[in-house]
């Protein structure tokens, strides 16, 4: 059989085998350098729009042969994830809840995709034992989306997501660089057209243009930071504990899309939409037991606790005052005390105000002092009638 036919046949067989390997979509891209992406990444960096979670070496990001000398093709895989909870628990006064983004539901996707890439690698090695392969998911050097786009998995949405015609943007991506000369697939022809819904819906204006994100203003990034959350985002974070799904939820292509193909991805509602109050006193051991399986745990418990404190302020949950006062008085972490001060200022009332005044006498951290001062001013000012605040994405 001529060589070209052999590789085409292997690719077709691989695609036919995908469902049995637990993969929802496979595409093949050439391993040529990503020249357009390179320019884009340079501009992105110059404008200070990186999150800091990206691979910093732009040569490695855009030249697959630096990772695998002799690289010829990249196999891109996509796995669809669930978007809806069965019997979601209610978030209501006295029992308010936070929400994890769908990308953190079920088992950590890094592990799930690594498992599928291992299945695929074994499948290839049975047929081409000498194949050279380097697999990666998220934390690898390449841009998973740019690879997927070139491999015909989907189009690059104005919300930055890779949108597949079959599963919308609710897909995780991973890839393997190989030295197999598999014939590349064609990019998909669909696009966002003149729709701008996601750009208009982004709560922080982080989508500065179609497909252009200022990551430092993106709530998904901000929920993962460990320091004080800047004031301008404290209300906007709503009840998000990890990640943000707004620009995907509003996308018309995603309407009604929900797949439960993978057992490991099934969400536990009490984990992905947890009660906020118990999070304030959760121990390391309990945190590990409850969230350890989720992709949301990678930054530890501090960001999630900080976000829970802010969410209680956003809900203006009066029943949370004693616990917020305890955090303000006792928590050794300034970010937690500062956030508790902010939330007490939002909730207001005599008990909150008294605790803030008392804390102002003792607090030694300058930033927290500032938070307390602003919170006292807020809690002392006349306030509009209270209303029941709605949850964010849940
Ligand atoms: C850093 C990072 C983040 C940062 C920055 C995100 C960003 N948009 O840059 C933060 C923390 C904010 C983040 C958030 C999220 N992330 Co993230 N993240 C990454 C990571 C590690 C690198 C992304 C990166 O390099 N960005 C830099 C930009 C410039 O490049 P890019 O988005 O990769 O590539 C696109 C652009 O360059 C664009 N492009 C190139 N040329 C041109 C030219 C024109 C004219 C235009 C318009 C566009 C364009 O097209 C490329 C392909 O789509 C990837 C994993 C990886 N290794 O790739 C995951 C990844 C992108 N994240 C993912 C997910 C799921 C998310 C969230 C949805 C999670 C959540 N629910 O909170 C949000 C979505 C936020 C958003 N609107 O993008 C998935 C995306 C899956 C998908 N279907 O697209 C990835 C691929 C992880 C994975 N393996 O599944 N993430
Ligand atoms: S993830 Fe949220 S904050 Fe980030 S771009 Fe999308 S809507 Fe905006
Ligand atoms: S909301 Fe509209 S513009 Fe945004 S990603 Fe979806 S289709 Fe594209």
Percentage of β-strand residues = 5-15%
Largest sheet: 4 strands, antiparallel
Unreliable residue stretches: none
Q: Which ligands, by name, code or SMILES, are bound?
A: cobalamin, iron/sulfur cluster
Number of strands: 10
Secondary structure class reads alpha+beta
What is the helical fraction, as a range of percent? 25-40%
Number of helices: 16
User: Helix-strand pattern, N to C?
Assistant: HEHHEEHEHEEEHEEHHEHHHHHHHH
User: CA-to-CA gap between the ends?
Assistant: 55 Å
General shape = elongated
Average pLDDT, rounded to a whole number, is: 96
Structural notes for this entry:
There is one protein chain. This protein is an alpha+beta fold. The protein has two domains: 3-87 and 105-178, no CATH class; 204-243 and 276-380, no CATH class. The protein is 39% helix and 10% strand. It has 16 helices and ten strands. The chain has helices at residues 3-17, 35-46, 58-62, 109-127, 144-150, 197-201, 219-222, 231-234, 246-249, 269-272, 284-291, 302-314, 321-330, 334-347, 350-362, 366-380, and strands spanning 25-30, 73-80, 99-100, 133-136, 155-156, 162-163, 171-178, 207-209, 212-213, 240-242. Strand 5 and strand 6 (162-163) form a beta hairpin. The model has no long low-confidence stretch (mean pLDDT 96). It is found in: Cytoplasm. Its main location: cytoplasm. Keywords: 4Fe-4S, Cobalamin, Cobalt, Cytoplasm, Iron, Iron-sulfur, Metal-binding, Oxidoreductase, Queuosine biosynthesis, tRNA processing.
């Amino acid at each position: 059989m001529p060589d070209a036919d052999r590789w085409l046949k292997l690719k077709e067989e691989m695609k036919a085998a995908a469902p049995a390997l637990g993969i929802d979509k496979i595409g093949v891209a050439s391993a040529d350098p990503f020249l357009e992406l390179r320019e884009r990444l340079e501009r992105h960096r110059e404008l200070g729009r990186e999150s800091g979670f990206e691979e910093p070496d732009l040569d490695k990001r855009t030249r697959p042969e630096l990772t695998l000398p002799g690289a010829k093709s990249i196999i891109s895989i996509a796995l669809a994830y669930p978007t809806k909870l069965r019997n979601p628990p209610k978030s209501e006064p006295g029992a308010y809840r936070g929400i994890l983004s769908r990308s953190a539901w079920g088992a950590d996707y890094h592990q799930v995709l690594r498992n599928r890439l291992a299945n695929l690698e074994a499948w290839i090695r049975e047929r081409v034992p000498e194949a050279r392969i380097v697999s990666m998911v998220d934390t690898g050097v390449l841009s998973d989306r740019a690879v997927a786009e070139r491999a015909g998995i989907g189009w690059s949405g104005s919300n930055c997501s890779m949108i597949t015609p079959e599963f919308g943007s609710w897909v995780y991506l991973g890839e393997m660089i190989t030295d197999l000369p598999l014939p590349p697939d064609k990019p998909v022809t669909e696009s966002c057209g003149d729709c701008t819904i996601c750009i208009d819906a982004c709560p922080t204006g982080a989508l500065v243009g179609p497909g252009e994100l200022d990551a430092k203003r993106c709530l998904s990034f901000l929920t993962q930071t460990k320091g004080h959350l800047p004031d301008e985002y404290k209300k906007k974070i709503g009840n998000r504990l990890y990640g943000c799904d707004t620009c995907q939820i509003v996308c018309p292509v995603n309407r009604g899309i929900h797949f439960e193909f993978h057992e490991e991805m099934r969400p536990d509602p009490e984990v992905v939409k947890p009660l906020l109050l118990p999070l304030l006193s959760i121990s390391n051991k309990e945190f590990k037991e409850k969230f350890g399986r989720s992709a949301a745990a990678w930054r530890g418990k501090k960001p999630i606790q900080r976000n829970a404190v802010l969410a209680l302020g956003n809900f203006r949950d009066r029943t949370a005052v004693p616990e917020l006062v305890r955090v303000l008085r006792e928590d050794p972490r300034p970010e937690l005390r500062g956030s508790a001060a902010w939330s007490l200022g939002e909730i207001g009332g005599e008990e909150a105000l008294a605790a803030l005044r008392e804390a102002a006498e003792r607090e030694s951290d300058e930033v927290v002092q500032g938070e307390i001062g602003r919170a006292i001013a807020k809690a002392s000012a006349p306030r509009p009638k209270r209303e029941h605040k709605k949850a964010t994405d849940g």
